[in-house]
Structures are given as structure tokens and as C-alpha cells.
Amino acid sequence: MNAQNEPNDETNYDTMSVAEFEQWLPELFAVGGGKVSEDPRFARFLAANPDCAALVRDLESIAETAKSLFDPPAGGESGGMEPSDKIWSNIASKLQAGDGSEDEDK
Amino acid sequence: MQSKPNPGFFKRNPPIAGEAEAIERAKNGDPDAFSVLYALHKRRVYTLCLRMLGNVSEAEDMTQEAFLHLFRKLGSFRGESAFSTWLHRLTVNLVLMHLRKKGLQLVSLEETINPSEEDAPKRDFGSRDPQLTGSVDRVTLERAVASLPPGYRMVFVLHDVEGFEHNEIAAMLECSTGNSKSQLHKARLKLRELLQQPEKLPPLPGLKEAIQ
What we know:
- The complex is a heterodimer.
- Chain A is mainly α.
- Chain A has a domain at 18-67.
- Chain A has helices at residues 18-31, 43-48, 50-67, 75-78, 85-96.
- The longest helix of chain A is centred in the middle third of the chain and has 18 residues, at 50-67.
- Chain B is mostly helical.
- The longest helix of chain B has 23 residues, at 31-53.
- In chain B, 60% of the residues lie in helices and 0% in strands.
- Chain B is elongated.
- Chain B folds into 2 domains: 11-102, RNA polymerase sigma factor, region 2, helix turn helix motif (Rna Polymerase Sigma Factor, Chain: A, Orthogonal Bundle); 109-211, Winged helix-like DNA-binding domain superfamily/Winged helix DNA-binding domain (Arc Repressor Mutant, subunit A, Orthogonal Bundle), CATH 1.10.10.
- Chain B has helices spanning 19-27, 31-53, 56-73, 83-102, 109-112, 138-146, 150-161, 166-173, 177-195, 207-211.
- Classes of the chains: A mainly alpha, B mainly alpha.
- Chains A and B meet through helix 1, helix 3 and helix 5 of A and helix 2, helix 3, helix 6, helix 7 and helix 9 of B.
């Protein structure tokens, strides 16, 4: 059976096929705030399809951990996460020379 | 006078102590205050550039450009969003402009930076595929993100790390929101694949080495 292009108000998520789930997953993540595993509409389907449930769990775990990357670790943890000192020296000398505005089309 | 900020903007990027005062002083031309802003935001801006560009030298150049641009534009910051959100959007736009100048067309993600078949995540939904064991740690994820094809990496970093919405990403990358959603999903699938064999990821004594 070909999957529908998009789920709609009539969609019965309990009986959707794995192919439909696969096709709709990017949208389901986007509209559900990224928490497909906690959405009661998909509970029965995920309970009946453990591989799909595992996939959802993994993708949610990746997205959750990604939030922690926003703040780069301090120096020691993985090193190399801050620009070298010469960058500030360059900026300061350009500002001092009053040519900060000349970098627009560099 | 600053307009009243929307509290929702600060969910991900809460104001940093001393930041508001430094912004106001820097707006009035205090050079020490600008150095405070640089110190507060240099790592985040640099890391954003590094993740988007995958190259230390270019990331440093763009960090420099971003702060010089910030210096020129600071007067237009009205506090309607978190300062870091505003600064990061400014940085993303500069990096994208840089990439366009370099000839990497981002006009159509689908046609240009869409990874090749070989780079795309391999999905076979009918069969059992390996699952991740346990939670994902941030250092391993950082290594995996650095290994993503550029098109996937861009959308993943903008959405999942930086917290931009699909409509914002679509506007920045000049693609459809559907394309942004689809690229993000493929990026996460690819990351899952990469994280199943973390020993094959490039070593990460520092992010610099990992993505060069």
C-alpha cells in the first residue's frame, strides 16, 4: 500500500503502516514539539512496533543531547572550543584604527 | 529605550550576568564593554561558526567578522529577543553569505548540498536495525555532528543545537520548511547511524582536529 503524503484529521495512527510512519515522521516530530514518544496518539502504534519505538527513542535522545551542545564545553573537556587570542587582537586593532566598518565586503 | 522582550525568547538563551549593562555601555562607545561582550560570547559564536563551516581557520575569520559586524550593528539591538539569539542570527547570516560568496549555493538545499546517496542515512524500515545503547553523550555527539555531510550538519546545528524554528531556517537557507524538516530528520537518522559505531568517529582531542 502506498503511504498517504501527509496525515490528516481522519488519520488513524493506530492502524498506520510502518511505511506511513516512516514517511510522516519528520512532520510528526515537527508538530509534536519533538516528543513523539509522549504523544498519546502514537502510543498504540509504538507499542505494537518496537523497532519504530526504538527509533523514536534514539532520535529524541539525539535531539535532547544536541541542546546541551549550545554551550560549548570549557577548555579542558574537548579543547579547541574557543578562538585563538589573535582574533580579539585583530578585532581590537581594527576598532582602534576605526576601520571596523570596512570589513563588510572583505 | 528597549522594548519589552517576549519571555519565550529567553527559554533557551537566558540573559548572562553583566550582559545587559555591557550592551548599554558598548552602545555608548565604551570599548571595555565591547571586550566584555566578546568575552561572554566568543566561544558560542566561534563554535557556531566552526560547526557550520567545519574549518578552524574560516571559523576564526568569521568569528572576527561577526564581532566587527556586531560592533557596527549593536545600536540596532532593541532587546526584542535574547541578545545571544540576535547575535547568533547575525552570525549565521554572515556565514551563509560567506558560503554563497565561496560558491556553495544554498539557494536550493535539495539540489546543492543534499548529500549524495552514499552519505544519506540507510534506512530499511521492515527490518530490525541496531539501536543506540544507553544515552548519547555530548562529546560523542559532537564528533558525530562534525562527521555529518555539510547540508545535514547545517540544518541540525541550526535547529537542534541553536534552537531556530523550521520557518526561520527555511528563510535563512532559502528553502521550504518541508525541506528543512526533511533535512533535519535525515541528519538525525545519519547521526543515529554514526553513533552506532562511535569507535569509527574521528578522534576528538579537540573539535579542531575532529572536523578538519
